[in-house]
Amino acid sequence: MMLIAGTVPDKNMPLTVGEIGSDGDYLAVGGHRFPCAQGTGAMVSAALTVTDYLKLNRPTVVVAGDVGEGKGSRAIYEYIIQNVKSLAPRVLALHYWLPDMALTRRLCDAVEKCDERPIMIADAASMYSAKAAGMASRFDIFTPDATEMAFLADPAATHPAYIARHLFDTDITKTPELVDIAYRNKNAPKVLLVKGAIDYIIRDGEIIETVDQPDVPALEAIGGTGDTITGLVAAFVYAGLELQEAAIVAAKANRMAGKYARPTPATRVNKIIEQFPVVFERHLCEWSGECCITGGENE
Amino acid sequence: MGFLRRKEKTAFEGDGLVLFADVQAALKAERALKRAGHTISLVAPPPRLRKGCDLAVAINLVEQPGIERLFEEKDVYYVAIVPLDEGCSELLDIVQVTDFGNWTMVKAGNMKLSFDKGSGVIVNTSGGGCPDIPVMHAEMIGKKLDEAPKPKEIGFTLCALMLHRALEECLRLWQGSEQK
């Protein structure tokens, strides 16, 4: 099972768990719908395009409505803490929620008690809470952008709004230095995919590959295009690719989908997501080195 | 006879402190925060942060904007909200601007806001990771910069505060270009 957890922007949506389905521009689970837009929606939608294309089981999601007050977030933390052992996911991808260091520690402890430890992926505020709680090294993959990479490199910051000024003032080409600091302070997971004008794929502190083509600058302005990368990474890991391979293929696929969509800063993320099946059809064999990826559980 | 199993309780770990001028204000703040559903604890501030009395409220720093708004609504007077970690810097106050031809993107911290140079309409928001950010993405896109809801007023988190800073800078840039 691939388990994806995160909040959705609907105050009235209760904690809901189940296999995700699509319903036009919306995602559907347990009789509820949420938009395929910036946040958990974009991340899940991207993962779903991979599982559907490769005919794998669709992601199971743990979602709850939360508009910033934290109640839905805490319900998600508690659900995973209580159930991760019995659910036994192969991949656990954490996304939008209100960062809570104590609950993150309990969640990581619960994961350690699983018979087989899931592959742990975090992005957005779940990555913030993992780093703030000192739990980053227990994760397998983070997908920060350049500012979030500076946050991981700042040993004192518990949120990107509080990173030291000199770290914020750097550009993407300074990523190798920030990566070095983050790994020295044990504030990084096994693999980092740093998103930016140049995407850096790093394993255990070593830069494995950079991806800078096709160059589609407008993607940075489009809300959700970082979320889609995380969804792709999670799904490619679930499909059986090695961690760093999944990160490389995800970076390439996101850029190529951007190129096909011919976006402006006003484009919505669903226009990028629509391109993924075409991108997979044309490029996935070449990028992954195999034309049939069979690591996940097939339908 | 079986033992009653105590429900597991998570000890609260705040990464921010609210400082007060007197103990009464701290206690009033505690009541207001608990009634509003915030997880907090009363603590003694470290000596370097003692600005008034020796009672402070530990908070989850990411909830700072929502807490500030609650204090305003409930007339709770406080001295400052500060990060708990000694090495932490002040809240990031610099912005970066990217020119996309017909559009401008302003980045404040981890948040980005893009608008149409001609009409002043917000065309996208991106970045962040707290739960109120997708709400603001939906609420702000398609509205003019000076008519859109203010993240500081409808958001609860530090991501919202950064988006607010981006909005303020966009407004400044757009209004400046209008006057030329």
Summary tags:
heterodimer; A: 299 residues; alpha/beta; UDP-N-acetylmuramoyl-L-alanine:D-glutamate ligase; nine-stranded mixed beta sheet; 42% helix; B: 180 residues; alpha+beta; four-stranded antiparallel beta sheet; 5 helices; 32% helix
Verbal overview:
- The complex is a heterodimer of chains A (299) and B (180).
- Chain A has one domain (2-288): Ribokinase (UDP-N-acetylmuramoyl-L-alanine:D-glutamate ligase, 3-Layer(aba) Sandwich), CATH 3.40.1190.20.
- In chain A, 42% of the residues lie in helices and 18% in strands.
- Chain A has helices at residues 40-53, 71-87, 101-112, 124-132, 146-153, 165-168, 175-184, 225-238, 243-261, 269-273, 276-288, and strands spanning 2-8, 16-19, 21-23, 26-29, 32-35, 60-65, 91-94, 119-122, 141-142, 191-194, 199-203, 206-211.
- Chain A is globular.
- The model of chain A has no long low-confidence stretch (mean pLDDT 94).
- Chain B folds into two domains: 16-83, Alpha-Beta Plaits (2-Layer Sandwich), CATH 3.30.70; 95-179, no CATH class.
- Chain B has helices at 23-35, 64-73, 133-140, 151-154, 158-179, and strands at residues 16-19, 41-43, 56-59, 80-83, 95-99, 103-108, 111-116, 122-127.
- Chain B has a four-stranded antiparallel β-sheet with strand order 2-3-1-4, with helices on one face. A four-stranded antiparallel β-sheet of chain B has the order 5-6-7-8.
- In chain B, strand 6 (103-108) and strand 7 form a beta hairpin.
- Mean pLDDT of chain B is 85; it is low at 1-7.
- At the A-B interface, helix 2, helix 3, helix 4 and helix 5 of A face strand 6, strand 7, strand 8, helix 3 and helix 5 of B.
Layout of helices and strands:
The complex is a heterodimer of chains A (299) and B (180).
Chain A: E1 2-8, E2 16-19, E3 21-23, E4 26-29, E5 32-35, H1 40-53, E6 60-65, H2 71-87, E7 91-94, H3 101-112, E8 119-122, H4 124-132, E9 141-142, H5 146-153, H6 165-168, H7 175-184, E10 191-194, E11 199-203, E12 206-211, H8 225-238, H9 243-261, H10 269-273, H11 276-288
Parallel strand pairs in A: 1-6, 1-7, 7-8, 8-9, 9-10
Antiparallel strand pairs in A: 2-6, 3-4, 4-5, 10-11, 11-12
Chain B: E1 16-19, H1 23-35, E2 41-43, E3 56-59, H2 64-73, E4 80-83, E5 95-99, E6 103-108, E7 111-116, E8 122-127, H3 133-140, H4 151-154, H5 158-179
Antiparallel strand pairs in B: 1-3, 1-4, 2-3, 5-6, 6-7, 7-8
